[in-house]
């Protein structure tokens, strides 16, 4: 069955960096676009960034432009989200999403001094 497992979240100070990972299994990873969403407390879940099977990327959250970068390693069935210059407003649970139907369990990112 399809599984998405995120890791890499944690507590970081403003201005710091984190790299999130999401390992996919149960499907042909290289054939599908992969997505990172996030949900902050009291807010709706929002699409942050997408990477297509050919490596093309689209950023959907204007607030992360120039700071976050999605990438993938098809040899490891893994999609990454490199997050730099983190701000308190980036505090959220970050989710991996694929195949228009499957979510990971989420990983908490907290940006605080």
Structure description:
With 113 residues, the chain is mostly beta strands. Helix content is 0%, strand content 50%. It has no helices and eleven strands. A hairpin with a 4-residue loop joins strand 7 and strand 8. The relative contact order is 0.32. The mean pLDDT is 97.
Strands, count: 11
Strand content: over 45%
Uncertain ranges? none
Whole-angstrom Rg? 13 Å
Helix content, binned percent: under 10%
Main beta-sheet strand count, sense and barrel state: 7 strands, mixed
Spatial gap, N to C terminus: 40 Å
- Tell me the number of helical segments per DSSP (H or I, 4 or more residues long): 0
Q: For the residues shown, what is the average pLDDT?
A: 97
Which class best fits the helix and strand makeup? mainly beta
- The coarse overall form would be globular
Give the ordered list of helices and strands. EEEEEEEEEEE
Features:
113 residues, mainly beta, seven-stranded mixed beta sheet, 11 strands, globular
Summarize the structure.
The chain is mostly beta strands and about 110 residues long. The protein has no helices and 11 strands.
How is the topology of this model organized?
Layout: E1 3-7, E2 10-12, E3 18-25, E4 34-39, E5 46-51, E6 57-59, E7 68-73, E8 78-83, E9 92-98, E10 102-103, E11 107-111
Parallel strand pairs: 2-11
Antiparallel strand pairs: 1-3, 3-8, 4-5, 4-9, 5-6, 7-8, 9-10, 9-11
